[in-house]
Specification:
Strand content: under 5%
Oligomer: single chain
Number of strands: 2
Helix content: 55-70%
Order of helices and strands: EEHHHHHH
Largest sheet: 2 strands, antiparallel
Radius of gyration: 14 Å
Number of helices: 6
Strand order of the largest sheet: 1-2
Distance between the termini: 20 Å
Structural class: mainly alpha
Shape: globular
Length: 133
């Protein structure tokens, strides 16, 4: 995350310190899943999860909230953010760590879809980061 500070407030306190610690967990989980870090979607997923860890309600407003916030940070459009995240997810589910993928996404994968939706992916990772870690 570098020197960036996140200006979201929750419960009347700024959570900048907490998010820096959890940022390492985000990278660890994504790399263990096999998300290629050279893809733009990787950075977008990291920042999206940082925002969701601060405000879980963003999971209810992916297209009208979360993608817009990520796009602003990276100077791109929400549709490009959505597409880059989808590409990273698809690549991960094709070539990633199948055992770890199944441990997180075991009961949400459908046989007719090779990968979860962006929303399902982000939600599952959010719950994994908050409940397991």
């Amino acid at each position: 995350m570098g020197n960036d500070t996140i200006s979201y407030q929750t419960n009347n306190e700024i959570l900048g310190v907490k998010i820096k610690v959890e940022n390492n967990n985000i990278h660890y989980v994504l790399l263990k899943l096999g998300v290629p870090p050279h893809l733009k979607g990787y950075s977008y997923i990291v920042y999206a999860l940082e925002l969701v860890l601060i405000d879980p309600n963003l999971l209810q407003h992916i297209t009208k909230g979360l993608y817009i916030d990520v796009a602003k940070k990276y100077g791109t459009t929400p549709s490009r953010v959505e597409r880059a995240i989808r590409h990273a997810i698809t690549t991960t589910f094709q070539y990633g760590n199948k055992e770890f993928i199944n441990s997180i996404f075991q009961n949400c994968l459908r046989p007719d879809r090779p990968a979860p939706t962006n929303t399902m992916f982000l939600a599952r990772l959010y719950y994994y980061l908050t409940l397991v870690n």
